[in-house]
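ugh ok so i messed up the first submission bc i forgot one of the chains. this is the corrected input, ALL of the components this time, i swear. 1464 residues overall. if the numbers dont match what u have on ur side tell me asap before i send this to the collaborators (the ones from the other lab, u know who)
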Amino acid sequence: MGNCLQSVGCFTCLPKNTNIRPSFPAVCFVWQIAMIILFGVFIRYDAESDAHWPQYKKSHNITSDSENDFYFRYPSFQDVHVMIFVGFGFLMTFLKRYSFGAVGFNFLIAAFGIQWALLMQGWFHSLDYTDGKIKIGVENLINADFCVAGCLIAYGAVLGKVSPVQLLVMTLFGVTLYAVEEFIIISILHAQDAGGSMIIHTFGAYYGLAISWVLYRPNLDQCKRLQGSVYHSDVFAMVGTLFLWMFWPSFNSATVYHGDGQHRAAINTYLSLAASVLTTMAISSLFQKKGKLDMVHIQNATLAGGVAVGTAAEFMLMPYGSLIVGFFCGIISTLGYIYITPFLEKRLKIQDTCGIHNLHAMPGVIGGIVGAISAAAATEHVYSSEGLINTFQFEGPIQNRVPTVQGGYQAAAMCVALVFGIGGGILVGIILKLPIWGDPADDGCFDDEVYWELPEDEESIPPVLEYNNHMTNKHRDMSQSSFSVEQS
Amino acid sequence: MGNCLQSVGCFTCLPKNTNIRPSFPAVCFVWQIAMIILFGVFIRYDAESDAHWPQYKKSHNITSDSENDFYFRYPSFQDVHVMIFVGFGFLMTFLKRYSFGAVGFNFLIAAFGIQWALLMQGWFHSLDYTDGKIKIGVENLINADFCVAGCLIAYGAVLGKVSPVQLLVMTLFGVTLYAVEEFIIISILHAQDAGGSMIIHTFGAYYGLAISWVLYRPNLDQCKRLQGSVYHSDVFAMVGTLFLWMFWPSFNSATVYHGDGQHRAAINTYLSLAASVLTTMAISSLFQKKGKLDMVHIQNATLAGGVAVGTAAEFMLMPYGSLIVGFFCGIISTLGYIYITPFLEKRLKIQDTCGIHNLHAMPGVIGGIVGAISAAAATEHVYSSEGLINTFQFEGPIQNRVPTVQGGYQAAAMCVALVFGIGGGILVGIILKLPIWGDPADDGCFDDEVYWELPEDEESIPPVLEYNNHMTNKHRDMSQSSFSVEQS
Amino acid sequence: MGNCLQSVGCFTCLPKNTNIRPSFPAVCFVWQIAMIILFGVFIRYDAESDAHWPQYKKSHNITSDSENDFYFRYPSFQDVHVMIFVGFGFLMTFLKRYSFGAVGFNFLIAAFGIQWALLMQGWFHSLDYTDGKIKIGVENLINADFCVAGCLIAYGAVLGKVSPVQLLVMTLFGVTLYAVEEFIIISILHAQDAGGSMIIHTFGAYYGLAISWVLYRPNLDQCKRLQGSVYHSDVFAMVGTLFLWMFWPSFNSATVYHGDGQHRAAINTYLSLAASVLTTMAISSLFQKKGKLDMVHIQNATLAGGVAVGTAAEFMLMPYGSLIVGFFCGIISTLGYIYITPFLEKRLKIQDTCGIHNLHAMPGVIGGIVGAISAAAATEHVYSSEGLINTFQFEGPIQNRVPTVQGGYQAAAMCVALVFGIGGGILVGIILKLPIWGDPADDGCFDDEVYWELPEDEESIPPVLEYNNHMTNKHRDMSQSSFSVEQS
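and heres the new structure output, hopefully the right one now
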């Protein structure tokens, strides 16, 4: 049994300083104060959330409060919000002893990230040049949640292996990179990406994978003790999976233009996800002995259809088109868990705790390709001329763009997402490799003990070796008490 | 101790072939491909989700995108979606060792069922005769979720006793039967059933009970090992209960006509459910020694009010009327768990894992009766003439129908639901009895081990082998193992 | 080891009669029947949920069903509903062995409370003087949920220490007091309190704390056995935390006037909550050895920002103002858990199971003060004259009121909330001290065993005494071990 406690002489298992007391509170305070100052200087309410709305309504001939964007967007916003905090958070609780870190640090990243995203995205997209202020409304809140989603995807790759300070640094840079990448894709290339297959998933996944590659831990596989799940942690993870799955139609439609676009995006996503479930279950059963299903696949690959239909969600993909996308992504994603994750770890030195390569990277790239092809194939017959303009926003600077050209720009957008993800990830990974962030030693990975006060009497984690009597935590405890029983 | 391992010679405990490798992936693939082909041939977007919506708006004098049905229905749709996937899924996680199967197979059934339901219901209700295509929008998605609810109710009766292949077969036929039954009730009888007391609950429950009757396992009671709950599995089940309870007002109002009908359906359901909670708790306490509450009742019977107010939800039932319905259904449903479930099992040979007879069958029938009576008693004074037409859709072919006649048609609808449920269930049960589906032997029932790869180190399930008769619980266990370690 | 079993001779550990069989079912039945009668006499649908809506629409020149209040309010209502039942319920599941009581009694209180609140609030606010009936619509449902929130907050202080009958009594009086207090604050003082910092949180918290003070149990600290959490109960509590956190923007905006007010309230709450998360984490880490985070803080103090921004949510607080409120409340609330809760228990004899003083009382008072100051500082420049009238409802009897005066009324409202909370709590506490309610002895506190049938084979509660080695399960365990103690 190659076991971490036996290799106690090796470098990686030397106890590391994981005390985050000076650094973590300091970073939280300083950054939160910085947010307050920047918000004070830059951020104000937009026309629809400002008390001047009654005048605005009159001056814009709006007859009803139901035309306030709040009523078009808020239900979708709340669904997206649930995905970010409960969906991503609980999806990562599957590890037997990292549920606090999964749901707690997810909470931390998201709460900081949305503030910084409001600023970064605001400067690029919502700056009112008349007074130099960023004007925010419900759509900005959705976009901030989207932006944070990219960082949470990246968290999936390094789950259990980094300190909360590292996560905050990763989020700071992640949001910044995202905002620039998004600006290039949306405002310069004028590509469409309603559900963020490229902007969110491809970027986020490669950002996380590149960081994980730089932070490679060669001896991690000797510390398998905490890398699996237990029965109830898998059930908790299904809470995350299901809230992501159910609300994904809201995610992909949340910022689409009002009316048929938003409606269609929800339908396409609903269908693509349904198809993913069946093919995920099929492949999972096909590749396990006796046809047994693997919870890891069900928790993750069932969502691949939602990722892959992100870019094209608002297009006239047709219901069967959505099913086809979900069909193939369920297969590819599940096969990824079976073959590609081990390959990445062994050959490419990429340790991907949650398998984000299978759930976000590959389906994200497929989503970008589907988007490019379906944009290039758009016709006036299918969309109507007005529909074509609405859907692809062929107006203003790109009013003469045609679908085939749009397809090219969509493909270019994919490249931008990849470059920002991989390049940014390597850069940030190098920063995170500095020995100042309080990250855990190899045998502290995947263990809540390192950063959390744990309840004293604990359940069910079998001690690694009972004769090992320098164990320090709760496991220690339990074996101890059985000792005494015998001695008496 | 009559124990399954002791009766190992009996037929039912002979190991069965539960290998679903050739069959399960094959069924998933073939059916999903069939869905893609059928969707390709038949399904398109409806006017409100098609890119031609701007023209449609103009031609129909619709001034605002907020009139798109998406904005009336989507929030309710999402609530219903949560009920289907999290509500039903987690409600069934109460068994100590069948949470994966509960939430995972629920996911499978629903994901396949909604696709097939879009087709089946589409042919009956949304076929555009000009081009032979089914046109879908958000209301179709809600109806597909409704249809699947019927099959998930049926799953509750056979939970833990069937294979996933059997579940898929059950869903295929269940959705088909549902669509025909719904067509007869809605389009031929012109009965009202907003929340589906008859169409969904009565049908689904008797469908499941009939199947369970045909699949009766006479020696199942000798294998009680896994039939109960553990503490945390009961808490997980409360996640299901509460999401069902909270969103039931959305369920019953989701497809009601816009305006007062939808508003009233939500209020009636909210009230009926509240009353159910109090009477459930009262009866649960009254019939247990020392007045202790039973989690099984709280998890289930508190929902009976929502089932029973389904048909009449949009009627002018009056707030006190809703309370009365909830009052009695909480009582009846809880008494069902105490007296009727054991009776059904012993006398009628119906094994009903989740007690769907108490939660869906009885309250469903009561709901149908309440609907028939309150329809027959409707007056112009209470509804206004326009309100009467709106509520009962006395227009087109039934424009001369009067409330008393409507009451008769409502009663007829109940009979249709019963006939389809019982008849269909027996038929499908016979099919499922064929020895080709990979269903578990009696001692593999209620055990995730059969169809799932389980995490290696596990919590708290008492070992199968009884010859070790001084083991007391897992902790004991662990100290046992440390014993051996030290002794060696 | 100061242990309850050793102090078995003391008064408080004498077995108490916790049999609630005659009383609990009786109270449930009688009160539910009373509700039905009162609803029958008093409650009807309002104009927007009555079948006469088509006429009402015509007579009020409403052109679209999307103007029905249902479509403005229902999504927020459902979010609030989730907070009440899942949010509050699961937040309290953190105790290792009181999850059934947490989520089950929360369910009971809320289901009874909303009915009684519809009546009490109805008499004060929705009485139609033409026919003496209370007319209810979706806004009444939201307000009933709000009212119940006050009682659930109070439940947090006495969690695990009272019987369900006591909880029902507490709810009956709590709702009554709330309705009067609300009437004084809203209709007499014309103070604003959109998210209920004063009406809900300050009142509810002091109501609960006063009750807990009267019901002080001096020997409770000798029974620490069940007062902590276990790993998975903490994860369950995070389900509650996150649903509260995510939907708080809906809570604070749910009853705000349509349009910009509702929009702004959501934005302010979103931001305040985000800031709370960072400062909570910072303080939690700063005050623990090695900088480890404490789950109790993360579960609770992260929500303080939502409480504190309640009153001022709809004001032009500005995004940075919201961040500042959240910033300080995260700090204060976390420090409360570290320093004030132990102080309250030791010095003031207030045992506050969930720490509601830190999460609701202090942030509630801060929220009232923020509201008073920001109301007093309101200017026409910031709000526009029409916006000022909309926001503060300077119309009818208070059409000449100015912001500075409004600030004074806001402060007066805070005093009303405090007086009702403390005074009402002492009164109700005295009633609950009567020895007729079936409350548990000290060593039955925090134990589901007292009021619930528990599953037989149980997880993970360490046996009280290790030398007892023929224990078979926990129940066995406990009786066994108390036996042996006495015998020894």
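quick check: The domain at 35-450 of chain C is CATH 1.10.3430.10 (Ammonium transporter fold). that seems consistent at least. Chain C is about 65% helix and 5% strand.
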